[in-house]
Write a structure and sequence with these properties.
The structure holds 2 protein chains of 2 kinds. Chain A contains 5 helices and 2 strands. Chain A is mainly alpha-helical. The longest helix of chain A is centred in the C-terminal third of the chain and has 25 residues. Chain B has a 3-stranded antiparallel β-sheet, with no helix packed on it. Classes of the chains: A mainly alpha, B mainly alpha. Chains A and B meet through helix 2, helix 3 and strand 2 of A and helix 2, helix 3 and helix 4 of B.
Chain lengths: 117, 200
């Protein structure tokens, strides 16, 4: 359904940067590696936009640090890792997301549904 | 895949992204796409729906990184307006020369142009009819609306020059519209805001 896809896309737009910061907690990663980590956590970006512009923005905002290193005998890759500002942003972002999610759940009536036996 | 990366490179060049940064981005992209391909994946696994729009993807990435060149109101080369102006002048000169050549070549000092609809019939004044050295634009029912006659000989050459003149005048008219401040693509461009690629 086109509307469902559109809403999912809109929702993801608001939190995908947060998800990227979250997967970087597992350690430095290059672009495609982060896509695979997201997929491993159940979040596929197929049909959504690419993560590269987001990584670029995170880098410009100083939320990630980068370095180049060889990966498994392959060509040198750009690795992204959390900066201290990124860690703070992740922490604040997670709280924000949880508060927003709880509020939306309340508005949708899901809280009552969850406590029902 | 190679084509996608090349298209991105062209877009970065157009946006004024410095070569070392563009090379770095292209290398990262290529490595990721190759890895996905080796794992049996597709470009979509790496790029999402951006895999279908390399230029937008490239612009979006460069803008997000803040590595585009200085903003320019119009990235068309500066020589284009100058060349257009020179061509307009040359075209005008050609029109004048063609007109003069027609007059000289035809041995006549005038070119007759009928500006009213000509009604054929008994007693009607028929300015021109079809024949050598005459241009007749037929109207409904085969009646001529506009007729031009070039007196004298050397008709083929004269006709050719006359056609050049007519085409030239039309081109000049279009050029005048282009350069006028009230109409044309320059006015349209002024009303268009800068294209800001979104997230994708």
């Amino acid at each position: 359904m086109a509307n469902t896809e559109g809403r999912r896309s809109q929702l993801l737009r608001g939190v995908l940067d947060l998800c990227l910061l979250a997967v970087m907690e597992d350690g430095p990663a290059y672009g495609y590696e982060m896509t695979k980590r997201l997929r491993g956590r159940g979040l596929s970006i197929v049909g959504e936009g690419s993560i590269y512009p987001l990584l670029g923005r995170l880098e410009r905002d100083g939320l990630v640090e980068t370095h180049r290193a060889v990966s498994n005998g392959g060509p040198p890759r750009k690795y992204y890792s959390l900066s201290s500002a990124g860690e703070h942003a992740l922490e604040a972002g997670v709280s924000e997301w949880q508060a927003t999610r709880d509020a939306v759940d309340g508005a949708l009536g899901l809280v009552k549904a969850e406590v029902r036996p | 895949m190679r084509e996608f990366v090349e298209e991105c490179r062209r877009e970065w060049r157009r946006l004024g992204v410095p070569d070392p940064i563009a090379n770095e981005m292209a290398a990262d992209l290529t490595a990721d796409l190759e890895e996905a391909e080796a794992e049996g994946g597709s470009p979509e696994d790496v790029l999402g729906n951006s895999a279908f729009d390399p230029r937008r993807f490239a612009a979006s990435w460069a803008t997000a990184r803040g590595v585009t060149g200085p903003p320019s109101p119009d990235r068309r080369p500066l020589w284009r307006p100058s060349v257009a102006a020179v061509l307009t002048v040359i075209l005008g000169a050609l029109v004048v020369l063609a007109g003069l050549a027609v007059l000289v070549r035809s041995g006549s000092s005038s070119i007759a142009v009928a500006t009213r609809r000509i009604v054929a019939g008994p007693g009607a004044i028929r300015l021109f009819g079809p024949g050598p050295g005459r241009i007749v634009i037929p109207g409904p029912l085969g009646r001529p609306i506009i007729g031009m006659q070039i007196a004298g000989h050397g008709h083929a050459f004269s006709l050719l020059l006359l056609l050049v003149a007519v085409v030239g005048i039309l081109c000049l008219g279009l050029a005048a519209l282009y350069w006028s401040p009230w109409f044309g693509p320059r006015r349209l461009r002024r009303h268009q805001g800068p294209r800001t690629p979104g997230w994708n």
